[in-house]
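Q: What changes when adenosine-5'-diphosphate is included in the input?
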Amino acid sequence: MNTLESPAIQMRGITKRFPGVLANDHVDLDVYPGEVLALLGENGAGKSTLMNILSGLYRPDEGQIIIHGRPVHLRSPREAIAHGIGMVHQHFMLVESLTVAENVVLGLDSTGFVLNLKQVGEELAALSARYGLPVDPNAYIWQLSVGEQQRVEILKLLYRGADVLILDEPTAVLTPQEAADLATTLRQMADEGKAVIFITHKLDEVMAFADRVTVLRAGRVVATLPSRETTKAELARLMVGREVLFHLSKKPRRPGRVALEVEDLEALNDKGLPALRGVSFTIREGEILGIAGVAGNGQRELAEVITGLRPATRGHVRVHGQEITNRSPRQAIEAGISHIPGDRLGMGLVPNLPVSDNLAMKAYRRPPLARGPILDRRALYRFARRLIEAFRIVTPGPETPVKLLSGGNQQRAVLAREITAGRGILIAVHPSRGLDVGA
Ligand SMILES: Nc1ncnc2c1ncn2[C@@H]1O[C@H](COP(=O)(O)OP(=O)(O)O)[C@@H](O)[C@H]1O
Ligand SMILES: [Mg+2]
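A: The predicted holo structure follows.
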């Protein structure tokens, strides 16, 4: 990066409020041509909001955007791209039923002449080759993997002549190999003089991809540093606001009896296609088994079959030797299985019910919460208060509807309930989603 150059973008005093939330609080940010800038922060720090402002999707309540020295008002993404600023959002904005080339030209002013899609395809192929973004211009979006769709979004921006490219958590949907390829592409774009901003909450990516890093915490910039002059520990401290331990001392353990046994398990996904094909493993008491893989390769279905939410078409699930294959979720719970689902608002929590009821959902059938057929509300409140304190759930009180909590605190509520209810086996799908590095 050439620091003698003047910034491509200057954001000055940017403030953005949502009802009850100060998402961006007088944020200053500079981006230079030729650099990859990481925008680092925990969930809810205000990263997406700030970049949605820079890409013309949101208007700031206060503050100014200066592009190559000139103050501008960006009233839409179209105006932003006219100034060379484009963003790849976390949720792609492609039309599934159209081809790659059609998506790229969609929304362009084709003043009077019919767009020549063949020529667009050729130009795209050239951009693909130049930036290492392989994708077939004639393929339909629905035929493409998530990684390929992301490449289409990037190509779309390049085709429109963007020289400031913003990517919102781009690696979240990529395999490690795809992420490494993306890093190469970003570096090349920067080497050609473009400015690249990528949003992340992953410290390793800052170190691997970025020239500089700006850290946001609770809507404010807490630091901007060259990544070569900082460490993961420092970045974590800046991001979270306190010291973070990276190394847990794991003592060697002597595993106990077999707790869960999965044998030759097969199941279908929601589309009726095979999701699990002969999965077998055992877990003993005292063990943690990690299941790794790119999302969409059967992890969710596996958790659902074990917890009784999805039928197995073949094979066995046994808990302490007892067959529980294709029993109900309630029977799985009674066998000692608890479940932290990947989708906390879909399956983990009832949004409109109070925090207390959500915490008690697995305990209310048994004493001390149940006295015979009667639910003891006072015992329920005591139970909830104890969990709120033990798991440091930030909530105005046990009566607050759980939907009003932040994502991280909702996740703590699910963890609190499932860990407390656990009587043997905990199935956790992305348990750290939404939690900061400290938690
Ligand atoms: N459209 C919106 N309406 C209301 N609140 C929002 C909206 N977008 C973001 N927020 C809130 O603003 C804060 C910052 O959110 P966001 O910019 O998405 O954070 P990040 O991208 O760093 O995770 C959060 O508290 C979030 O709930
Ligand atoms: Mg975000």
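Observations recorded in class: The longest helix spans residues 176-191.
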